[in-house]
Design goal:
Pfam families: ABC_tran, TOBE. This protein is an alpha+beta fold. It contains 10 helices and 18 strands. The strands form 4 sheets. A 6-stranded mixed sheet has the order 6-7-8-3-9-10, with helices on both faces. A 5-stranded antiparallel sheet has the order 13-17-14-15-16.
Length: 363
């Protein structure tokens, strides 16, 4: 049993066979094959992460019934959904561009779902008013979508999805269309609403911060397959692919450990404080790297490499140097330090990292 299957089994064992999501999504689309096991307990928020073309959106559409499975299974609260039409599934969807009905008010957009489920117009509007109040939008009930800000439209879309009381909530890049300031505010609000949601929520996002803040568990998909899953802290501490390492902001290397030394295929060795034997990863943040124009004679760092500056870019309030040479790595330093070192593309530098600032773990 793989780590991924063990996780799915653990969720089902803890919460019983008839609750939550139990899926194995297999979709063949020409030259692309999605093969993703996915399980989640009621009340759990799972984020699907991965580069463009990894299969995240295909997985979400398969859960919604918009893309048919060519294999595997899809069960929700014990019921098989593979042959259930999309409109009959207890699934709510929040699309990236919200897809609000432009001719309806915010109230009637939210009331649309309950009306489709058989509620009277008065009942549906009463439920919709309650949901808009929860979202802090009671004063905007009569506004058409064009009169709403991006953040308000996003909250209406979430209310519309929740008003049908779904057993599975799907969110496709729900914050992507927002500006930075609005995103910060709406992310906090969305986290609160998801924390109160009693069923399963699956979130697709490219933004690691959205995933870390909103999700209880991350599932990383590359080339149609799950390459790693775990809590945000587990993923951030022990990335297993270059994509994940870049996502969480770490330099990552794979080699063979012999005690405190991990030797890479290139022959370069890294000294760590952990003692391991066999295949291993070594990771460290760009901020752990110190740069010198001359080989330092007084450094206590056990790792020292001759490098060349391949590029420089602003990264937050710091400068990130992309280095090649004995070891390809990223280093973060202040603008003042970069100026004092005279860093520019092509400049030669020595890069040092203390063993205590590395983290080694089995591959």
């Amino acid at each position: 049993m793989t780590d991924i299957d063990e996780t799915a089994h653990r969720v089902r064992a803890d919460d019983g066979p008839d609750t939550g999501l139990d899926a194995h999504l297999v979709v063949d689309r020409g030259g692309f094959r999605l093969d993703v096991p996915l399980a989640a307990a009621p009340g759990e928020v799972v984020a699907l992460l991965g580069p463009n073309g990894a299969g995240k959106t295909t997985a979400l559409r398969a859960l919604a019934g918009l893309v048919p499975l060519t294999g595997g299974r899809l069960r929700l609260d014990g019921a098989e959904l593979e042959r259930t039409p999309p409109e009959k599934r207890p699934v709510g969807v929040v699309f990236q561009d919200y897809l609000l009905f432009p001719h309806l008010s915010a109230l009637d957009n939210v009331a649309f779902g309950p009306r489709c489920q058989g509620a009277t117009r008065a009942e549906a509007r009463a439920q919709a008013a309650e949901w808009l109040a929860r979202m802090g939008l009671a004063d905007h009930a009569g506004a058409k979508p064009r009169r709403l800000s991006g953040g308000q439209a996003q909250r209406v879309a979430v209310a519309r999805a929740l008003a049908t009381r779904p057993r599975l909530l799907l969110l496709d890049e729900p914050l992507a269309a927002l500006d930075a300031r609005t995103r910060l505010e709406v992310r906090a609000q969305l986290r609160r609403h998801l924390a109160e949601f009693e069923a399963v929520a699956v979130l697709v996002t490219h933004d690691p911060l959205d995933a870390m803040v909103l999700a209880d568990r991350l599932v990383v998909v590359e080339h149609g397959r799950v390459v790693q899953e775990g809590t945000p802290s587990e993923i951030a501490r022990r990335p297993r692919t270059d994509y994940i390492a870049q996502l969480v902001g770490l330099n990552l290397y794979r080699g063979r450990a012999e005690g405190h030394l991990v030797r890479l295929e290139s022959g370069t060795a890294l000294t760590t404080t952990e003692k391991l034997t066999g295949p291993a990863f070594v990771a460290f943040p760009p901020g752990a790297v110190t740069l010198h124009r001359e080989r330092p004679a007084d450094t206590s760092a056990r790792n020292l490499w001759r490098c060349e500056v391949a590029g420089l870019e602003t990264h937050g309030d710091r400068i990130r140097a992309d280095l090649t040479g004995d070891l390809a790595l990223a280093a973060d330093l202040t603008t003042v330090a970069a100026a004092e070192l005279g860093l520019e593309p092509g400049a030669g530098v020595w890069a040092a990292v203390k063993a205590a600032q590395t983290h080694a773990y089995p591959a």
